Amino acid sequence: MKVFCLLAFASFSAIWAQTAPGSAPAPPALPNLPDETEVAILGDGTRLTMGEFKRIYEALPPANQQMALRNRAQWLHQWELLRKLTKMAEDAKLDQQSPYKETLAYARMNVLATAEIGAAVNLIVVEPAEIVKYYDSNKRKYTHVRVKAIYIAFTDDAAASSAKKGKRPLTEAEAKAKAGKLLAAIKGGADFVKLVKENSDDETSREKDGDFATLHSSDNIPDAFRAAVFALKKGDVSEPLKQPNGFYLLRAEEVTVRPLSDVRDEIYNELKNIRSDEWLRGMDREAKVQILSPEFVSEMPPPPAKQ
User: Fold this and answer.
1) Which member of 5, 127, 146, 173 has the greatest number of CB atoms within 10 A?
2) Inter-residue contact 246 to 175 (CB < 8 Å)
3) CATH code assigned at 180
4) Rounded to a whole number, what is the largest CA-CA distance in the chain?
5) Tens digits of per-residue pLDDT, 135-148?
6) How much is the pTM?
7) How many independent structural domains does the chain possess?
8) What's the rounded Cα separation, in Å, for the pair 238 and 248?
């Protein structure tokens, strides 16, 4: 029986592979036919309509959808072969034998569980007022901050460091002290760009008068950076921000908040996802199982080592 299953699976894999997409051109669109149009008569006399084909097509995996559109005659032949073998298996009551019975039950559970989740999500309603409230409470998420930077590098590994242009590398303590002095000078009115050119160890930003980046709250940046940057107002300079090999002073050149009209759909989807997660977690909490055999759920001891 197992050999037959493997051969059947291999045969169908080969059949589908005949129309595998590879580097072939994009498939054509669905035929523009009324749903009631009969497109084929199958082996048992069943008449397949365009509407029925569309419903089958929507249920196919994406790769098989492409195959069906590229060679619809071949797909109809494969579909009839699949129906014929399925009918033979049902006549032989294979669907009532293990492991096929359990496999079918498991597949059915997955399909229906996915359908129930989709139906529940579709019933979730997000009101416009909720979107406005979320936006007002989370404006930092939609804020962009363009910053200039002064970077003061350090190393405490004297043996591994080498003098650069005759300049001794700073230790962490020295770099922190230097960053603090620069910050005090900036607060006292010193020209930030002039200090960049004279002090920054980041060559790339130094050559651009300190222009460093436009940062977004969703960027993959250290938490200390995120908290400091998005607390800045235009013209503000951060406290020295430590990184593994240096300290940054960041000045906010421009602070921009995306308008609600630009992010309304994002917020709608986010709120819907939050509600969906809450619903699913609730379902998970309600799923109760009483364990009757502690041995069943206990860790199995490792098998004895081979001598």
Assistant:
1) 146
2) yes
3) 3.10.50.40
4) 91
5) 999 998 999 999 99
6) 0.63
7) 2
8) 8
